[in-house]
Amino acid sequence: MQMEWIQAFLAVADRGGFTAASVQLYRSQGRVSSYIAALERELGARLFDRDQRPVRLTAAGEAFVDHARAMVEDLETGREAMAAVQQLTRGDVTLAAYPSAGAAFVPEVLRRFSDDFPDIRVELVEQAVHGIDVALDEGPALVAVRPTLPPPRSTHPFGRSLLWREPMCLVIPEAHPLAGQDVATLADLRGEPLVVSGSNLRYDTDALRLLMHQGAEPQIRLLSDQPQLLVGLVRNGLAIGFTNQLALESVRTDGVSVTQLSPPLHQQVAVYWSAALAGSPAATALLDTVRRTPPPAGTTDLREPGG
User: Fold this and answer.
1) What is the spatial distance between Cα 130 and Cα 151, in angstroms, rounded to a whole number?
2) Which residue ranges make up each domain of the chain?
3) CA 212 to CA 61: how far, in whole Å?
4) What pLDDT is stored for residue 90 in this prediction?
């Protein structure tokens, strides 16, 4: 059974005649008649009473017409779905992330995404928080993974969905009196020079916000948005490091002591997206993949049920 036969059948039924149907379909009247005859042979029943003017459906034709319309509608729906997939399966999309999420989370996101959409090219932008906000605000990123603090600085609103919570840690030089302790308090840090995650105090940092919220008066000596550099500065005795747990999982920690805080402090991480995402099926699919990807081990899942 061919779709052209079905379309010819509906045209004759709607127009009440073979001549009018041929005009609608841009086919000769003989071609339309041949389509109807082929359909009737396929179904084993006469569909039209050709003795009537205008042509009328037989009882068999009446029984079949609604099913014929559903077949055409299903075909159109399928074509629209296929067009959407074809649009989605091509093109480029940019994902921004801060360094430790880039190492601990983004590779699994991209593995899942490339399995589903192998022909979409993903460009990665690894930046500190301020750089991520610029990439979202001005392009090229439409999707970004970043801590929730500080709040995004932008001239445009961003969408947000929480992903996980992770503990903050102290990185202490081996020769320091606090080295080797299981836990330390903020009071232990009073007067101690610190190196914290970030690139510019003018734009605030997650670490600084967390410390200030707890009433601490941190003595910030150094900033680094690269975990390996932060640990290197601590290893050389320049300061005590304060950073998120994931940052330490991708770097060597020999020569330093990693200590938990009591009471614990946590960093929340979310996926953010630009309002321009609505115009990019590829970026929308990437956002969906980010939200469905389980958070890294050792973190607390904050995703809403169903992703």
Assistant:
1) 10
2) 3-87, 92-164+268-301, 165-266
3) 78
4) 61
Instruction: Please report the pLDDT score of residue 149 as a whole number.
Output: 82
Q: Which CATH class is domain 92-164+268-301?
A: alpha beta
165-266 is classed CATH 3.40.190.290: yes
Amino acid at 71: M
What distance in Å separates the CA atoms of residue 210 and residue 194, rounded to the nearest whole number? 14
pLDDT beyond 90 at 221: no
Q: Is the pLDDT of residue 202 over 60?
A: no
In CATH terms, the fold of domain 3-87 is Arc Repressor Mutant, subunit A (1.10.10)
What local confidence, expressed as pLDDT, does residue 80 receive? 63
Tell me: pLDDT of 206 over 70. no
Q: Tell me whether domains 3-87 and 92-164+268-301 share a fold.
A: no
